[in-house]
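FORM 12-B: Structure-to-Sequence Request
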């Protein structure tokens, strides 16, 4: 009897999985390598964070997240090459172009940032944008590889980011 109930629950969950993804909310985690650019040249670092997306149409969604990263770079706010740490909260619109397997996307929006230039700090709002490819493995699970650009005042970043997410 217990086995029948378990099989019935699994069958119902499997049958309802595509409709659950239609709610349009997904959450995930991301991380990757970044190139930090300041007045003194380019250096490489890393970043990681969390993200959320809400579908507002068949191909359009609103994305937000929280990302933190660091790397050594020279800016006009540092004395020589210093470790620069940053935190950013991007809010973007994303347009998906469906393919046979997965989607290609482009997104753009605002980037609320806080950069610790050691010893000074800089915060404000800048442009953020990106593009990438989303591969949906199951109706609820997806993997993304993408490019992200962020303007953070004296600092800009170009990142290659990997992400894993789950739709709710």
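FORM 12-B RESPONSE
SEQUENCE OUT:
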């Amino acid at each position: 009897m217990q086995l029948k109930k378990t099989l019935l629950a699994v069958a119902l969950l499997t049958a309802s999985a595509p409709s659950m993804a239609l709610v349009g909310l997904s959450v995930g985690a991301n991380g990757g390598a970044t190139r930090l650019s300041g007045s003194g040249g380019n250096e490489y670092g890393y970043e990681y964070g969390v993200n959320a997306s809400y579908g507002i149409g068949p191909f359009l969604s609103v994305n937000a997240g929280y990302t933190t990263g660091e790397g050594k770079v020279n800016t006009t706010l540092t004395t020589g090459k210093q470790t620069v740490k940053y935190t950013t909260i991007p809010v973007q619109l994303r347009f998906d172009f469906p393919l046979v397997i997965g989607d290609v996307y482009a997104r753009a929006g605002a980037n609320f940032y806080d950069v610790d230039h050691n010893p000074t700090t800089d915060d404000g709002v800048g442009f953020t944008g990106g593009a990438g490819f989303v591969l949906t493995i199951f109706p609820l699970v997806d993997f993304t590889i993408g490019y992200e650009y962020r303007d953070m005042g004296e600092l800009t970043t170009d990142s290659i980011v990997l992400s894993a997410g789950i739709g709710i």
